[in-house]
Fold this protein.
Amino acid sequence: MSLNSTPSSERTHIGIFGRRNAGKSSIINAITGQNLAIVSDIKGTTTDPVLKTMELLPLGPVVLIDTPGLDDDGELGALRIEKAYQILNKTDIAVLVMDAAAGMTSEDKAILEQIQAKKIPCVAVFNKVDMLTDRNHIDNHIDTIPSVSVSTATGEHIRELKELIASLVSSDKNERRIVADLIHPMDLIVLVVPIDSAAPKGRLILPQQQTIRDILDSGAVSVVVRETELAETLQKLNRKPDLVITDSQAFAEVSAIVPRDVPLTSFSILFARYKGDLDTVVHGAQMLDELQNDDTVLIAEGCTHHRQCEDIGTVKLPRLIKKYTGKAVHFEFCSGTEFPSDLKRYRLIIHCGGCTLNEREMKHRQQCAREQQIAITNYGIAIAHMNGILKRSIEPLTINC
């Protein structure tokens, strides 16, 4: 993906589900007009979820996810089916593909129940209608979701399928903003961006890029500085900033520099609101005060990256938590898609801002924690809490700056 491409986390995720040989890969190729997925008559060609980012009219930027067959067999097949079901946690729109001759099977009904339980918009696709000798007896009607009969071989009703998928895109998806709804045109926003060994050389990390773009889109003015130049920068400005946004790692230092009457928050806290439920993660930070010896804390990241010697997730946060609590706390770590389904052994989960996760997956992880009654918070909120500035750092998110 080029640097100017829409990040995967901001794209509509379209999951393609169905039994082996129902034509899932053919559907992807038909709606994109490209040979993105391998098509074969051999069952089980797609053995793992395959994600493709692209622009798809009339939807715009999307991620298409081709999943393994729901009727896969054997021990390995069961693992593949489990992977297909896990994709639901990041799916914004589900496309359930069925062979028109076979109709809806027990496997199709089972995943449709999960799709509807998770309240995922879904369209049913009855494929291969060109192979039917008698179309009068095709049962392509499902009361609870829209459906369409298509042929990927002839292109029949593929345009209607694309339009149907586009109609399911949530109208509020483009209304979510990182910071623009908290500021006004010509507001002065100062962003504090430490440059350390863990920072990607020659560029800013994704949350910083996205926040700056959101500020520009709102017509406000952004000033980007390191924490080492913050005090001098504030002195040189001809007025106080309307908002200061800092990297969470510099929270304590920045809070001491920025006057109390200037709103202050962090990139991580903004993303806690943007991607998930702010109340949940603010409440979860209170568990830091209740940790005891031998409690286990899970530190979770949405992405995978090369670990530096002063990595925030595996080094800085554990060190800060041990110092803050004075307890012999144990830590476990996960990253990328490997978020545990069983959370009961943890007393607290501390998650990153989730800039690489889409909103649905981030909210799914928080919901899993709530259902299992495990406290969950986020990097920036945890750091603000341990520095005694949590109340100050969430004030800009609860009032209009």
Remarks:
- The domain at 180-270 is CATH 3.40.50.11420 (Rossmann fold).
- The two ends are 35 Å apart (CA to CA).
- The first strand starts at residue 12 and ends at 18.
- The CA atoms of residues 32 and 343 lie 39 Å apart.
